[in-house]
């Protein structure tokens, strides 16, 4: 093999490696609400096709004053769609509350299943909109020594970006003694 042919092969390999890095970068940098459907590489051409998708995210916020151990407390869970298209199919929120008791979850349009710690609904959520909030009501453990950390995860609905599907919120407790 001649030296020129070897040099051309090396350049072709370097070009393919650079194209692979570009494809990887584009795949990782896809905007929210767009899922990459196909990436095609032919010689020196790259073709990327995006399909609009729903992008669910979740937020948990404390409601009211700082409760004391043994008090009733409330937090709100908000599910929003930051994607480019409405959700489709079932959307499920799973709540993680290992130390809480007397837990109830309620919200307009949501169906609560206490056994699985999930709330679900099947109506479509428009882009850049939120479902009615879920109210998480519970009794703060009487022996609580630290703040309450609440976690929830949203899934389903055609969500294409699972990186923002878990939320957490911290509820500060009032530990001043009763007089």
Description:
The chain has 179 residues and is mainly beta. It folds into two domains: 3-52, no CATH class; 56-171, Immunoglobulin-like, CATH 2.60.40. It has one helix spanning 3-28; strands spanning 34-42, 45-52, 56-63, 72-81, 91-96, 101-106, 111-113, 118-121, 129-130, 134-139, 148-156, 166-171. Strand 7 and strand 8 form a beta hairpin. It is elongated, with a radius of gyration of 24 Å. The model is unreliable at 1-29 and 31-41 (pLDDT under 50).
Offer a concise description of the structure.
This protein has 179 residues and is mainly beta. The chain has 1 helix and 12 strands; from the N terminus they run αββββββββββββ.
Rounded Rg = 24 Å
Number of strand segments:
12
SS content category: mainly beta
Q: With helices defined by DSSP (H or I, 4 residues minimum), what is the helix count?
A: 1
Instruction: Estimate the mean pLDDT confidence.
Output: 77
Coarse shape: elongated
How does the major sheet shape up?
A: 5 strands, antiparallel
* Poorly predicted tracts of residues: 1-29, 31-41
What would the CATH topology of the largest domain be? Immunoglobulin-like
How many domains? The number is: 2
| N-C termini distance | 94 Å
**What order do the helices and strands follow?**
HEEEEEEEEEEEE
Task: Quickly give the CATH architecture of the largest domain.
Answer: Sandwich
Approximate helicity band = 10-25%
Q: Give the class-level CATH name of the largest domain.
A: Mainly Beta
Please report which band the strand proportion falls in: under 5%, 5-15%, 15-25%, 25-35%, 35-45% or over 45%: 35-45%
